[in-house]
């Protein structure tokens, strides 16, 4: 116990995730977790537990036909834990039982959400938990309007499962083996899923900031959006740009594709295109088979998956703010400017360095995983790249490749999902907590040629 207390918050969070994966895999390996007549190997139980805790959504076995109700409950609990964060869930229980959260627990919450201050951190956690359950509840009620008429009373469970999975950006469902492809043109399913994905992916900090800004709406109308803090402006702006640009590009690239949207009318094509743009932001639900997309659409999907959602949300990827900082820094360098600026505000050099580091680590994880799968399998490189980017960014979209993986391939994706979930986060936390020692030795500077 003393050894655990001496660990940094970074290592504690990584161990919490690892413990949840192994506990979940053991529970899913039990015969009670699978339906009668289905024998689940431990590697598949481990894969499923990892994809649930890491809210990825890649599955080697169909969720709806493999797991019993008990198994589905285990998976849903793992998804909720993975989406909210183990530290948040544990803190929620302590708050619910009126237990005091010590300074160590507060530091864990701060690092888990990547917050800059301990001030009001317990109140922030309460708001996160309450807000999450309200949004998931509304999502479940909307889903019920479709699933109860279709599945009867089972539709209640299907709706709750789908709502939590969508909000946590897990992309796992218990409807069929083709995700949401049976509901491609259902406006309620499209709207509800999109709403849950966007709200969870934008980040909790943006929630409260937006609500505070909108309180002055009657007086200032839309000028109240100027009251948003710097982080919220970047997260909302980049998210809107990615959703709109992605939707337009998918609409153009798939317009005449007979395997996807060619035979649909314009409104239907737009709905499917924008859903694809939204779900690639680490949600993992598919309304069209991903293997049927054109190469151009697949490449756009790879870019959107890699970027992902925004900080302090349930989404993965390198994050919108990180991408914005890197692009702004590149523009500043090209223009020979000393400062990196967005919205006429300078970005601290420390934030620029962290953004570069997070992107570098994510790219390294993806590259190593891709290389290993190329060696292990004989699959098409686009299928492999789609899989590894999806695993690294914890998206869950696949070109029908996950189910073909052998044991070694499954182990590679398991490692990729885990590192994709905790790797960039842990690096960010480590950089945030480590300060340069005043007595550290500085190496001499020497010029090199770059570019």
Could you describe the 3D structure shown?
With 451 residues, this protein is an all-alpha fold. It has one domain (2-430). 64% of the residues lie in helices and 1% in strands. The longest helix is centred in the first third of the chain and has 31 residues, at 121-151. The model has no long low-confidence stretch (mean pLDDT 86).
Short note summarizing the structure:
With 451 residues, the protein is mostly helical. The protein has helices at 2-6, 9-29, 42-53, 63-66, 69-84, 86-96, 103-113, 121-151, 154-167, 187-202, 204-214, 217-220, 230-254, 266-279, 295-307, 320-334, 349-376, 381-392, 407-433, and strands spanning 340-342, 345-347. The protein has one domain.
Largest sheet: 2 strands, antiparallel
How many distinct domains?
1
Number of helices: 19
Helical coverage, percent range: 55-70%
State the shape: globular
* Spans of at least 5 consecutive residues with low confidence: none
Give the structural class: mainly alpha
Oligomeric state of the chains in view: single chain
Order of helices and strands: HHHHHHHHHHHHHHHHEEHHH
Residue share in β-strands: under 5%
Give the termini separation.
Answer: 50 Å
Mean pLDDT: 86
Whole-number radius of gyration? 22 Å
Biggest sheet strand line-up: 1-2
Count of distinct strands: 2
Topology:
Elements: H1 2-6, H2 9-29, H3 42-53, H4 63-66, H5 69-84, H6 86-96, H7 103-113, H8 121-151, H9 154-167, H10 187-202, H11 204-214, H12 217-220, H13 230-254, H14 266-279, H15 295-307, H16 320-334, E1 340-342, E2 345-347, H17 349-376, H18 381-392, H19 407-433
Antiparallel strand pairs: 1-2
Helix pairs in contact: 2-3, 2-5, 2-7, 2-19, 3-5, 3-19, 5-6, 5-9, 6-8, 8-9, 8-10, 10-14, 11-13, 13-14, 13-15, 15-18, 16-17, 17-18, 17-19, 18-19
């Amino acid at each position: 116990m003393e050894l655990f207390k001496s660990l940094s918050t970074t290592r504690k969070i990584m161990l919490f995730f690892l413990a949840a994966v192994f506990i979940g895999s053991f529970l899913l390996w039990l015969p009670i977790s699978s339906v009668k007549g289905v024998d689940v190997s431990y590697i598949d139980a481990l894969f499923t537990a990892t994809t649930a805790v890491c809210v990825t959504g890649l599955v080697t076995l169909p969720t709806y036909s493999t797991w019993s109700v008990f198994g589905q409950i285990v998976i849903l609990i793992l998804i909720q834990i993975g989406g909210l964060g183990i530290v948040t869930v544990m803190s929620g229980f302590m708050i619910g039982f009126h237990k005091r959260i010590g300074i160590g627990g507060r530091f864990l919450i701060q690092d888990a959400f990547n917050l800059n201050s301990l001030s009001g951190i317990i109140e922030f956690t309460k708001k996160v938990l309450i807000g999450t359950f309200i949004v998931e509840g509304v999502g479940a009620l909307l889903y019920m309007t479709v699933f109860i008429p279709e599945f009867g009373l089972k539709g209640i469970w299907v709706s709750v499962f789908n709502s939590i999975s969508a909000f946590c950006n897990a992309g796992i469902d218990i409807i069929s083996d083709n995700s949401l492809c049976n509901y491609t043109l259902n406006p309620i399913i499209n709207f509800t899923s999109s709403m849950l994905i966007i709200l969870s992916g934008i980040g909790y900090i943006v929630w409260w900031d937006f609500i505070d800004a909108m309180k002055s709406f009657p007086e200032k109308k839309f000028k109240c959006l100027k009251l948003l803090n710097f982080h919220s402006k970047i997260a909302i702006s980049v998210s809107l740009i990615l959703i709109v640009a992605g939707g337009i590009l998918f609409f153009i690239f798939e317009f005449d594709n007979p395997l996807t949207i060619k035979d649909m009318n314009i409104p239907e094509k737009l709905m499917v295109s924008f859903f694809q743009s939204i779900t690639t932001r680490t949600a993992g639900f598919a309304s069209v088979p991903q293997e049927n997309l054109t190469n151009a659409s697949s490449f756009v999907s790879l870019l959107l998956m890699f970027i992902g959602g925004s900080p302090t949300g349930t989404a993965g990827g390198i994050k919108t703010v990180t991408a914005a900082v890197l692009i702004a820094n590149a523009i500043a360098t090209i223009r020979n400017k000393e400062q990196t600026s967005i919205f006429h505000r300078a970005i601290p050099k420390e934030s620029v360095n962290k953004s570069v580091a997070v992107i570098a680590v994510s790219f390294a994880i993806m590259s190593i995983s891709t290389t290993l799968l190329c060696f292990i399998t004989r699959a098409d490189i686009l299928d492999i790249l789609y899989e590894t980017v999806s695993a690294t960014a914890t998206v869950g979209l696949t070109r029908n490749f996950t189910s073909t993986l052998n044991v070694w391939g499954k182990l590679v994706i398991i490692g990729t999902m885990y590192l994709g979930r905790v790797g960039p986060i842990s690096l960010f936390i480590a950089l945030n907590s480590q300060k340069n020692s005043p007595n550290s030795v500085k190496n001499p500077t020497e010029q090199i040629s770059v570019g």
